[in-house]
Amino acid sequence: MKKKLLSIFILIMFIMPDTMVMAEPYQGHIEETVPQEREQRKMFTNEVKKLDEHKEINLTVSQVLAGTTSVEGDEFFAEVSNDVLAGSGVLLPKGTVAHGRIKNIIDPKRMGRDGYIELSFDYLITPDGREIPIDGNMTSKLNPAQSVAQKTGETIAYTAVGGVYGAAAALEVAGLAGAIVSQGYTLAGGAALGGIIALGMSLFRKGKDVLISPGDEIKVKIKSTEEIPVMTFDAVRQEELKYEGLDVEINDIFLEKDPFDNLNTISLDLIIKNNSKTDFSSFDIALVNDLHNSYNPSIFTDYKNSLAMKNIKRGECVSGVLSFSVDNPNREHWLVFYDKRYHKPLAKISIDNAKKDLNITDLAKKGKKKRKV
């Protein structure tokens, strides 16, 4: 009997420490959730809103949607290009992912009528992981009045060009003397014939196939019956990396064309105060997007105060413009300063945060800034 009691006592001694150890993390877990709850409350205002069905939302497509390769029912994803504001905060932050499907594809037809595509959207996924059911639709079809006007203009143009070629052909066959003797009837006849031929060509000319490429921005009307909590402006700000002694102030941001006439160059009007322990050159500065694509400063600018190919030494304060030709200006970007030796990021300044501070909602609509000379 004593042996049994001793065995039970020893067994309890072995179990008790494990039980105490198991209890400690549980207590710690409860205590740690308190600051997390405080952070959760900071993310949202006390408002809830619904998506206005009459409000258009800008979305950037992330894949190719083409009438020749896509089929009805194919799913695709797009991203919200700009913060959707509501009340005193942000209803949908930039980067919210929209899930959609191809609803209908209409092939191009005769008389130059272009093909078009119809898209439908069923839910959104916010950057913080919330899934919001929605009802949204988009079509690339022109409205009937605009479409008829465009095609009529093209037909007239084709007819006019055909008339010019017809007149030229008649002049070549009959000669200038023949045109004078016939009081210009040969030219008129040639022009009429050329016009008829060209009109026939325009009637049988097939329209263009629909194509939406990655990076293209589309406008979608979306509505949701769900009430969505409004986020604070601080909650949607991008994370940045500060480097001691380096102070970078972005005074303006503008979108310009590159030497190939593409509107894809982001230019930054900067003031850089370098009181750090590091010298920087333009080779140590890049614009990096959320896909980790890196872009070096462009040297194809005509700014006299361009900072490209310049050194920023310790103790210096410089001001000027840095331009970067990027793949997609609508993506999130950071201005990054690197360590010379290891190419390690020392500072990261969010371009999106700077846009918010400067009240820039759309770079393309902002227009081209007057160049500094």
Write the layout of secondary structure elements.
Elements: H1 2-43, E1 44-49, E2 56-61, E3 65-66, E4 75-80, E5 84-86, E6 89-92, E7 97-106, E8 116-125, E9 131-139, H2 144-181, H3 185-204, E10 211-212, E11 217-223, E12 228-231, E13 246-257, E14 263-274, E15 280-281, E16 285-289, E17 294-295, E18 311-312, E19 317-325, E20 333-338, E21 345-350, H4 351-357, H5 363-366
Antiparallel strand pairs: 1-12, 2-4, 2-11, 3-10, 4-7, 5-6, 7-8, 8-9, 9-11, 13-14, 14-19, 15-18, 16-17, 16-20, 20-21
Helix pairs in contact: 2-3
Keywords:
single chain; 373 residues; alpha+beta; Lipocalin; Immunoglobulin-like; 3 domains; 6-stranded antiparallel barrel; 4-stranded antiparallel sheet; 30% helix; globular; disordered C terminus
In short:
With 373 residues, this protein is an alpha+beta fold. It contains 5 helices and 21 strands.
Would you kindly provide a written description of the structure presented here, covering whatever features stand out?
Residues 8-38, 142-193, 195-207 and 369-373 have low confidence and may be disordered. The protein folds into three domains: 48-140 and 210-231, Beta Barrel (Lipocalin); 145-204, no CATH class; 237-366, Immunoglobulin-like (Sandwich), CATH 2.60.40. The radius of gyration is 32 Å and the shape is globular. The chain is of the alpha+beta class and 373 residues long. The chain is built from five helices and 21 strands. A six-stranded antiparallel β-barrel has the order 2-4-7-8-9-11. The protein has a four-stranded antiparallel β-sheet with strand order 17-16-20-21. A three-stranded antiparallel β-sheet has the order 13-14-19.
